[in-house]
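Response to reviewer comment R2.3. The reviewers asked that we include at least one raw input/output pair. We reproduce the pair for tRNA dimethylallyltransferase here without editing.
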Amino acid sequence: MAKSSSLIAIMGPTASGKSELGVALAKRFHGEVVSADSRQVYRGLDIGSGKITQKEMMGIPHHLLDVVSPKRTFTVVQYQRRAIKAIAAIRRRHKLPFLVGGSPFYIYSVVDGIAIPEVKPNQKLRRELEQLSVEKLLAKLKALDPARANTIEQKNKRRLVRALEIVITTGKPIPPLRKNASPLDVLMLGIRRSPEELKKRIQQRLNKRFKQGMVKEVERLHKQGVSWRRLEEFGLEYRYVAQFLQGRITKQEMIARIQKESEAFVRRQMVWFKKDPRIHWISTYAEAKRLVELNLQ
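Raw output as returned:
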C-alpha cells in the first residue's frame, strides 16, 4: 500500500516517453495516472496531442483526459482544482497517484500549490485581442507586464491572450506566483534524453501521427464547429495542420514547421525543468523504479 502522503510526478520534454513510464510504474506500484497536459484535457484532440489510448493504458486508470470541449476555455485554475481532487480520490482508494505530463505550469500548479490569479474569461476582450497577431500581442504584453512577457511561451497565442486578459482586467502586472506548502511528499522524476535522440523521436512520432490520421482529425474538429483560429491556438501540430488545410502553407512546410517548433518547445520545457533542483533525472525504468521504492520506504 502506498504512503498516504506520496505523489510521484513524472515530467520531461515532449517525446521523451513520459506516458509509457507512467503506466509501467503505476502497474508496478498499484497506482493511477493524473495527466498534466494542457491539450489532452480537450475532447477530440487525440492524435495531435499524443493522447494515450485505452490499449496503451494497459488497464491503469487515467484522469484529466477529455474533460472539456475544445470550443471552450480551460484554465490552469480549473485544472489545478480537478487534479488535486483526483489525487485525493486516488489516495482515498489507497493507491499511488502519478502526475504525468510535460506542461510545466500544470505540474507546478499541483506540486507547489501555486496560487493563480482568478480572473474570469472576458469574451469581448478576448475577441478583440484575438484579432491581433502573435507579434503585436507579445509587444503589448511587454509594455504592460515585461516580467511575464519574458517567461511566457512567446508564440502561443492562447497564452498571450490569457496573460493580457489578466493584466488588462486587473489593471496591474501578473503578480509573482505564490507557492503554498504542499501536503504531499512529492518525488519528482525527469526523463533525460540527448538533444539528438529527442530530435529523432520527434521525427518518428510525427511520421506516426500523420499515418494515424492527424490531418483528418483536424478536419473533423473543424467540421464539428471548432474554428480555424481556435485550432491554431492549440499550437504545434494543430496550428500547422490547420494552416495547411486552409491552403496557407504546403505539406512540406507543415511538416518542417511542426518539427522545428517541437524542437523549440523542448528547449522551452527544459528551461523550466532545469531550474528545479528537486527533479531526479533518470534514463531508464530501473532507475525510476529504484527511486520510487526508496521514496515509499
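Residues 6-116+184-296 form a domain with the Rossmann fold fold (CATH 3.40.50.300). The chain has a mean pLDDT of 92. Further pairs are available on request from the corresponding author.
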